[in-house]
Structures are given as C-alpha cells and as structure tokens.
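Need the bound structure for 4-O-methyl-beta-D-glucopyranuronic acid, inputs here:
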Amino acid sequence: MTAGDATGSQTPLKDEDGSQLWLRYASPGRAAKSYRRIVRQIHVDGSSATSGIIRDELHAAIASMLGRAVLRNQNGFQAGALLVGTPTHSAWVRDLNWMGDLRAVGDEGYLIRSSTIANHRVTVIAANTETGALYGTFHFLRLMQTGQPIGRLDIAERPSLQVRLMNHWDNLNGTIERGYAGRSLWQWNELPEKLNARYTDYARACASVGINGAVINNVNADVRVLSPEYLRKAAALADLWRPFGVRMYLSANFAAPVRLGGLSTADPLDRKVADWWKAKADEIYGLIPDFGGFLVKANSEGQPGPKTYGRTHAQGANVLADALAPHKGMVMWRAFVYDEDVDPDRAKRAYLEFTRLDGQFRPNVAVQVKNGPIDFQPREPFHPLFGAMKQTPVIAEIQATQEYLGQAKHLVYLGTMWKEFLDSDTCAEGRGSTVAKVLAGQVHPSRITGMVSVTNPGLDANWCGHHFSQSNWYAFGRLAWNPELSAAEIAGEWTRMTFTNDEKAVAAIRDMMMSSRETFVDYTMPLGLHHLIGGDHYAPMPWNDRAPRADWTATYYHQASADGIGFDRTRSGNGAVEQYRPPVCELFDDIERCPEKYLLWFHRCGWDYRMKSGRTLWEELCAKYFAGAQQAAEMRDRWQSLHRIIDARRHGEVAKRLAIQVADSAAWRDRILEYFGR
Ligand code: GCW
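Answer from helper R.:
Posting the output first, comments after.
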C-alpha cells in the first residue's frame, strides 16, 4: 500500500496501532525543507528532569519529522538554533530582556519567537517555569507536525483556565466505570515498585495538550485509596508525572473517617472528624508534596455525604478544604446531586441545592458542575448553575468517555458539543456572559478556574478503544487551555497529527468529525429528547419504565403518550426554565423561539405540532432519525474512500467500528420510531 503525502512522494504506509496518539511525528511533507533550514541545532538550557524531557522530545521529534538528527547543545549559537529556557536557567533567555512579556504569560504560559542572538537567526521558546517551556515545546512541535510556517513566529500563550484535569473513573480492582478501552492503566498490584512505561507516555500525552493533573480513581470512591498502602502507590505515579507538570489528585470517600479511620461518625462538624482529615492531609503531603486535592461525590447515587448528618454540602466541603488549605490543596465538590426530596424534576435539583449555598464555601473549594443539568446526554442545554454562583468558583465537568454517545463503538467527535456548551450565553451579567467566560472568571471574578474531563484511556493499544475517541482526549486538553478555540481548528490539527497532512484527507476527516455529533443526536435523541436508554446506556430503550428510581427510566423524560411528547419545563409547566437568567429563560420558555434542538427538553408538544420546517413534529422526528442513520452510512463510505491514505491497520479498525455504527444507528431509528409510532 502506498500513499501520496503532501510532497507527492509515494511512501509505503506502515501499519500503526494508535499507541502513539497524536505524537507520531510523521514527516510534515512539503514543509520539511524549510524546517531543515530553520531548525539545525537544539539548545535546551536547564538541568532538571523537565528540561531533560524537553530535550529528548525535541531531538526525537525533529529527527523523526525531518529524517535527520539535529545538533545538540553547544556553547554559542549557530544560525538555526532552537533555544528553550527560562530566565532562571538560561542566561540567553535573560539577555533577551523579555521580562515584561514573560510576566504576562504567567506560570504556565510561554513565548515562541523568531529572534536574533549573536547575529544568528534563532527560534526561542521562553517561559517562566520549565512546565511552561514544556508546553511551548509541544506547541512548537504541533506547528511542525501540522505543516505550519515556523520562520516568523511571535506567539504568546497562557492558559485561560488554571485547573485542567483528567477525571478517571478507575476502580482499585482494575475495572473502569464507563470505560470502553480495556482495563485501568494503573497497575495497583505492581505499584509502587514496578513502573509501567505507559505511565510516562500518559503524562507526556497530557502535557502535550496542557493537561496539568489527574484524579486517578473513581468518584464512587473506594476508601482504601486513602490508606497508607495506596497513597504510596499514588505517590510513585506523582513522582513520575511531576516533571511533566501533571499533578496528582484523588477522589475521597466522605465516609473515610468511619470506614478507614474507625471513627463512629463522618459528621463534618465533629472535631474528631476534622482532625482526622487534617492528619490525612498531612500524611498525603508528606508523600506527595504538590498533591492537588480531593474530588468528592457526596450524597449522590448512594455515596455518603454531609447530608447523612444533617449538614450541607458547604459544611461537607469545608472540612476537607480546611485540612488541605495549609498545603495549598483544593476541593472539587461535585454538584451532580439529585435527591428526590428537593424537587420532582431531576433537572432542577442541583441548582436548588447549590445556589442557596453560594458564599458559604471556603476559598479553596470549587463546585464541579456537569455541562448539562441531567447527565452527559447527547444534547443538553447548559447547566443553569453556570453563571448563577457569584461567590463560588464553578468548574466544568465534561465527559470524553462516550457513555451516552456510542461508547467506543461510534465515531463521535465531542469538540463541537463542548463548544456548543462553552459558547452558550448564560446572560448572567448581560449578553456575552458565555459559559467559557464564566469558567475563566471573566463574568464573576473567580479564585479558581477550571475544566475537567471524565476521561477515556485504558489499556487498549490505542488507549481509547476507538481511534477517533483519542480526539476527545485531545480536544478536551486544547479547550481547557483555550475555550475560545474552534472545534474545526482542533479537529484539523488532531487529524494532521494523528493521521495525515494530505489536504484532501484532512478535509474529509475533519468534515466527518465536525458533523459526527449532530449525526449521533439525530439517530438517537433529536429535538431535545434525552435519556432514551437503559441498561449500559448504549442501546435504545424508550420503553424503559422500570428502574430503582423513576429518574433512571426513559419514560420519566420523554413522557410520550397518545396526545404528545416532551417534558414541560416551562413557566406554566414545572418552571425549570426559571433557573436560567433572562432573557435565556424567556427564550427557552417561548415555544416559538426555543431552539428546536431543545424543544422537547423544555416543551411538551402534540404529535402534529408544526415545526419551522413546515412538517409536523412526528414527521420531523422521522426525518431526523432517517437522516441520522443515513449520515452514519455516508460517514462509513467517506472513510472507505480514504483507504489508500491511512495505514491498513487503523483504517480497517475504524472501518469495522463504522460498520457497527451504521447497523446500530439503523436500529436506533427503527426501534424508536416503532415505539413512538405506537
Ligand atoms: O453518568 C452517571 C454514570 C455513573 C457515574 C455518575 C456520576 C461515577 O452513569 O456511572 O458514576 O454519572 O457522574 O457520578
């Protein structure tokens, strides 16, 4: 098999297993010639582990991309030097006198500039910290991987959000809750002595997109993770990840003082409980000096929490926050709560519980809120808590593991979905108060800013099960760094790095990715429908009316009957729209103006309700389901046409999954329409 790359040359394509993710460092094609002139020597100042990583990455990457090694550090520069350093460790960087500009990019940012040193044209990656220099290095390599010009660079970057974390739902027995790519990466039985090579590959991949930490265990937390035995294991990972700027965080079980500590209560106002958490925090910091903090799922889906003791979520969060504060650690307290006694509508509960606690949290607590008010559905309106908490930092939780979006079987790029969320206007302080701005602390000043992703890697060779699921890990990192990036831009760069720089193929793959989420919505839950599933959240189960809780059924949400379908959350219904600020509230409330993509989320409509297309609601539903399944088939055909451009192994593996997607999208269409048809 051969492929024409951008240079027009025919090179045999080696099979790839996807294990190198977007860090394959393939030839950049046509651009290689100018790169060879611009980068002839690598000069990384510094002697830390991080500068070693930078040096190794640059040498390996550039040799791989340009097909020849470049010179190592030498005293002095020749034309074509690439200098990487911080003012602390590099006299060259100091002498450039970029202090003002460096200050502006903060601890994690960087400058990349084409410049002149000793009369030689050089490229400089400068940062205040070595982690910043590492991020700048990956940025520079991304430019090369994607064939961008690198001769006249003047780049200044700093992350918009401080906390950019992977959230793993990994259990201590090696399984992963909602994991679709094999077992957990963490080999608990081998840690801390034996360190798997994948641990560093993982941190490197995270760092390459600016992810700066990981919560490594499930929010349905096993208390044992806080035992001395497991803390030592976590510390070994933390040591490996530190030079990559990836900090360790843990999910804490709120009942740990009882279940691990042997106390009779976990009441957050009990002195002994507070002391227990303090001692635990001290112990953790003794092992992991830069430990990031705790993530807590409390009083949700059977997890223990402060409400068990008649205390509020704020009181619960604060006892942990006080224990971590002396060490500069933080608490991420999840707002994924839906106790039935709060309101009959699950969508309203978290807002009701948390808005009344605004102002009661310690400064080192952030409330972690899922993008939508229910649970990672293929489409939800943004969660009304965004923009509603004026005095409490709110960070966003999104889900890269495609629990409700075809898992690792369907090709669904989530960049577009997350952009829809980030670009949503909360109108919290007038128009333009987008979720992205709320998260970045630009709407209400915020002490903590961040976005986390329930994430997808496992032990599968290609990390994420589906080759395209890697794009969701990638897109999360890129958007957490800069929520203003476009989904298309991210899809394009990922495609170039992961598959090819062939222009036609890039355009085809990017198009597939860009429409994939809407396609998925169309053949599963269009027009604001949600939760039409049961069991493992993969297949259609609109008839599902039996579960331990009403709000785990499908019928609770779609409420289909002979006279209509949809959940009336309007003012004249259950009033859920009022959790949104005006004019968003009025927009969702008004059936004429409510975006049709949210129609049945907010409105109950007759089957013959007239849609903007002129069709009845029923006809429109049919059209959506048919179009979705049709688009899945087109995606398969489009991918087929790329078989000479993508290596046979990855092409074949994706093709197999697309075949499943085509069959299952047709099943979605048929089962749903058959059910609602009745
Ligand atoms: O989406 C639901 C999942 C649960 C998960 C829960 C949560 C970890 O189905 O598996 O539990 O959300 O976010 O806590």
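Comments: The first strand starts at residue 2 and ends at 4. Residues 648-677 form the longest helix (30 residues).
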